[in-house]
Design brief:
Strand content: 15-25%
Distance between the termini: 52 Å
Number of strands: 24
Largest sheet: 8 strands, antiparallel
CATH superfamily of the largest domain: ATP-grasp fold, B domain
Strand order of the largest sheet: 13-12-9-10-11-14-21-19
Number of helices: 16
Bound molecules: adenosine-5'-diphosphate
CATH class of the largest domain: Alpha Beta
CATH architecture of the largest domain: 2-Layer Sandwich
CATH topology of the largest domain: D-amino Acid Aminotransferase, Chain A, domain 1
Structural class: alpha+beta
Length: 497
Amino acid sequence: MFDTVLVANRGEIAVRIIRACREMGLASVAVFSDLDRLSPHVLAADKAVRIGPAPASESYLRGDHLIEVALSEGAGAIHPGYGFLAERASFAAAVEKAGLVFIGPSPESIQAMGDKTEARRRMAEAGVPIIPGALEPTSGPEEAAETARELGFPVLLKPVAGGGGKGMRVVSDEDELPGAFESASREAESAFGKSAIYVEKYLARPRHIEIQILGDQSGAVVHLGERECSIQRRHQKLIEESPSPVLEPADREAMGLAAVQAARAVDYRGLGTVEFLYEDGEFYFLEMNTRLQVEHPVTEFVTGLDLVQWQIRVALGESLDFSQEDVSFSGHAIECRITSEDADQGFLPATGCIDRLEIPSGPGVRWDGGIRAGSEIGLHYDPLLGKLIVHAATRTAAIARMKRALGELVIHGVETSVPFHLRVMDEDDFGKGDFTIAYLEDHPELLRPSEGDVRLLALVAALLEHGAWGRVGAAGIKELDGRKLSAWQTSGWPWQT
Ligand code: ADP
């Protein structure tokens, strides 16, 4: 059917897809903007084609151009990755119209799930529990107020075409509603080109738990367990894990069944994720992402399946060679998203040139990265530099392993979110698995360096000043605030102890 895949993306996910192609004996064509000329995905692919200047609108988002490149390079399929064109039904349709294979679901499935109110209607019909609220876009602030009174405040105003947490507004009483409606519509219009808003009940302290599903072209669908994604900032995921620390086997089975039902309701094929909010033992459909997810590696670790290869195999027309009963789960996996955001300055976007990069290794550690030494980090694209994923027998062991691996990760030249992740790994509620999507509101201290970090930094600065770095051990300073200093190195972050 096809032996060459054009990867219409960049960064870590493009590298991930190219690796899967190579292992499957498929050739890969990378595409790149001027800024990405020497990026890892370009170097990893069999071939690479320049598609335009840095702005995504002039490169990675030019669907028609990408299709032309695929045709002229002899690629028979396009893998969209995530973001960019991955959930544009019109792009999937144009790919198919050009006689190419779109590695993803049908344009109809993307369309049905991309419109949040249509998705809610389809799910309600299929018997999947949805968050209480409207099934149609709201005509204006008055109707929104009426729905809100029926549901009870607080409510959430959400763009029908939403994504990336944009345009949502929590409204806690009626007086706030007109203003919030106005600003949500405006933001939705500018982010998605559609101002339509709908109203749903705002759940105060749910967890975000999602189910990975995989379907083939004959209609077989299995679920591959859950991912706990409650550790978020501004509705964007920071840390994901599998299994969830709270799901009982019966919950897992019920949510898995609901996810499979959701997929069947839109004739889903390939990889997809059904997201739920989970509160007090109840779960509610949030949305379905009709693509490969950033956090897929945690599922790969606990199931032992290669999800990207399966996605491609389904696109090649292969049937699943296993059933739900054959899916088994082993151990615990955690992923930290490593971004070019300054964890000590409120996640301020950071830029710079990576002059040194050291990647952790050892048992149960995986790095999916899109950077190398020499990479220029600007503001044109998503700040995700890479993902650090660990796997161990238990959650406690996985946390210890993540701390060890974060300690070994050295990224010099740009501020990153690594210090934040280290603080979370040390935090008690995280350790106990006791958290909701309000975790960072409950723990604002995690957004700044701790006093211990600052003292460590001061000590490091003093030692450096005196050229005494190599003599930390000799000086007898082995511990500060209970943190061992033995693994220090001049290249590492000072708080990597
Ligand atoms: P988007 O498509 O913009 O990413 P989602 O519907 O997937 O939006 O929601 C993103 C996040 O917003 C969720 O993970 C959750 O943290 C929060 N959220 C969404 N809907 C609700 C709700 N009804 N109540 C509370 N939090 C919500």
